[in-house]
Specification:
With 528 residues, the chain is α/β, with parallel strands linked by helices. The protein has 15 helices and 26 strands. The protein has a domain of 99 residues: ANL, C-terminal domain (GMP Synthetase, Chain A, domain 3), CATH 3.30.300.
């Protein structure tokens, strides 16, 4: 039996390697074999079925990295339903929007987020308390614990027919409209990514896979699924804990891992980094945001593993280009290719397009990066307009990123859209601008990304104050405080500029390029 859907992963490995360790949870030393993982996912599936969850219903998860995410995920998949992992770093109103927009019918939530839950007006609460299940102690909320929820459920596979073309993941990515969009990822998308696109990473049943990036990111949950797809053991960390990362690599003999550049940078700064035995490491994959050559070369010298860079988006099910280890050549004749994201992966196609006329750009000329292939999303949930704007009639996905090709290698130049990437997190100015403009003392606002040595980029607010009745001037701290109440902390501005008139073009669009220019002057490219 071959793996065609997410639910097949544990099903197939239960039959072929039942006693192989599938998952180790570093927080409490629990382990699951592939047989145990499949049995528990079947219990989840049957518990969901008792709640009335059917094919293509949305089912949500809100917690930091927990092993139950995977038993839950595979249980959801066995019913043909759709997993919605919510970013736990969001503010409660942002979480509420995603849970309601996704039309989630059930929620598995960690105990530390019950305070957020109590403030949310959720549609799924109308289904009753049984549709909310808690990982940990529910207190006096009246909700069931996860253990209570699955305790008496059958370990038999529900054996529901599931089409590989159906949606299985729905991760949310913010948009320039200011509202997050639900990216519909299919079983086919994920299986193609694992079996073709990222096959050069050389996962195998003997690998030990470290999963520490957040599971609400494709770089977290997708990476975890890759390891399980290959039949290897995965070591799960609850969060990005730098010292724990450094301890589990030698302790468990980790062979494969993925980091965003900011994590690599922070690891290199740890005082005991040179005392750690990294000899088990075979490959380090990195991506999600630009990396400086200094951090990359120092990482290569420190970890002494094969390094793979990948470029992709949630909409492309992760990496669609790859810079292979033999293409990392610091100090060599092709050292400048370290700034490249590599070449397009097997099965996918890539173009650099002039947005004005739709024509391909010549080598070295900057245009928008377009991608086509089996990893491109099905579309945006309940948003046909945004889907049509992003995917053309021939199946080309318009990334919103600007770059150029040289000898088939992709180089990122800038962003067509205004997105800011800070520490690997995608931040869209429109979301922050919407919040700022709701403040009575602000008459106009623009948000831009500015260089930051620690995070790559950080958020700057440019504000035109409004006249107030008491004449009291708006302060920078007041802006920060207001944003912290309404936005995830990583989206909040770290600095404020005051401007009498924010520049706009004749159609009213803010001239972000002009605002950004002073901060990026003298830099080779206009992203970090």
């Amino acid at each position: 039996m071959s793996i065609k859907t997410l639910g097949d992963i544990t099903r197939v490995h239960r039959a072929s390697i039942p006693d192989q360790i599938a998952l180790y949870n570093s927080s409490d030393d629990r382990t699951w074999t592939y047989e145990a993982l499949d049995k528990e996912s079947c219990q989840c599936a049957n518990a969901l079925a008792e709640l009335g969850i059917q094919s293509q219903d949305r089912v949500a998860y809100l917690d930091k990295n927990a092993p139950e995410y995977f038993t839950f995920l595979f249980g959801i998949s066995k019913l043909g339903a759709v997993s919605v992992a919510v970013n736990w770093r969001l503010a409660a109103p942002e979480m509420e929007y995603i849970l309601n927009h996704s039309e989630a019918k059930m929620l598995l939530i960690g105990e530390e987020f019950l305070g957020h839950l109590s403030t949310m007006n959720l549609d799924l609460k109308k289904h009753g308390p049984d549709n909310i299940v808690v990982l940990g102690d529910p207190g006096d909320t009246g909700y069931q614990t996860y253990e209570q929820w699955i305790a008496s459920k059958s370990e038999a596979d529900p054996d529901v027919p599931v089409s590989p073309e159906e949606t299985c993941y729905q991760l949310y990515t913010s948009g320039t409209t200011g509202l997050p969009k639900g990216v519909e990822t299919t079983h086919d998308n994920l299986v193609s990514m694992m079996s073709n696109g990222l096959a050069p990473l050389n996962f195998n049943p003997d690998a030990i896979n470290l999963v520490c990036m957040p599971l609400f990111h494709i770089s977290g949950s997708g990476w975890g699924v890759i390891g399980l797809f290959s039949g290897c053991k995965s070591v799960l960390l609850r969060d990005v804990d730098l010292q724990q990362i450094l301890s589990v690599i030698p302790e468990h003999g980790v062979t494969h891992t993925i980091f965003v550049p900011a994590v690599l940078q922070f690891l290199l700064a740890q005082p005991n980094i040179n005392d750690v035995d990294f000899s088990s490491l075979e490959s380090v994959t990195y991506g999600a945001s630009p990396i400086t050559e200094e951090v990359l070369v120092n990482s290569m010298n420190t970890f002494k593993a094969q390094f793979y860079q990948v470029y992709g988006l949630t909409e492309t099910t992760g990496g669609v280009t790859m810079l292979h280890p033999d293409e990392h050549d610091p100090g060599g004749p092709r050292a400048d290719f370290l700034r490249s994201c590599g070449r397009v992966v097997e099965g996918s196609e890539l173009r650099i397009v002039n947005r004005e006329n739709g024509e391909d750009m010549a080598d070295g000329e900057v245009g928008e990066i377009w991608v086509r292939g089996p990893q491109v999303m099905k579309g945006y949930w309940r948003n046909d307009v945004a889907t049509a704007e992003s995917i053309d009639a021939e199946g080309w996905f318009k990334s919103g990123d600007a770059g150029y090709l040289r000898e088939g290698f992709l180089f990122i130049h800038d962003r067509v859209k205004d997105m800011i990437i800070s520490g690997g997190e995608n931040i869209y100015p429109a979301e922050i601008e919407n919040v700022l403009m709701s403040h009575a003392a602000i008459s106009d606002a623009a948000v831009i990304g500015v260089p930051d040595d620690r995070w790559g980029e950080t958020v700057k607010a440019v504000i035109t104050p409004a006249a107030t009745e008491d004449g009291e001037a708006l302060t920078e701290e007041a802006v920060f405080s207001y944003c912290r109440k309404n936005l995830a902390s990583y989206k909040c501005p770290t600095s404020v500029d005051w401007m009498e008139t924010i520049p706009r073009n004749p159609s009213g669009k803010i001239l972000k390029t002009e605002l950004r220019k002073p901060y990026w002057a003298g830099r080779e490219r206009n992203v970090s």
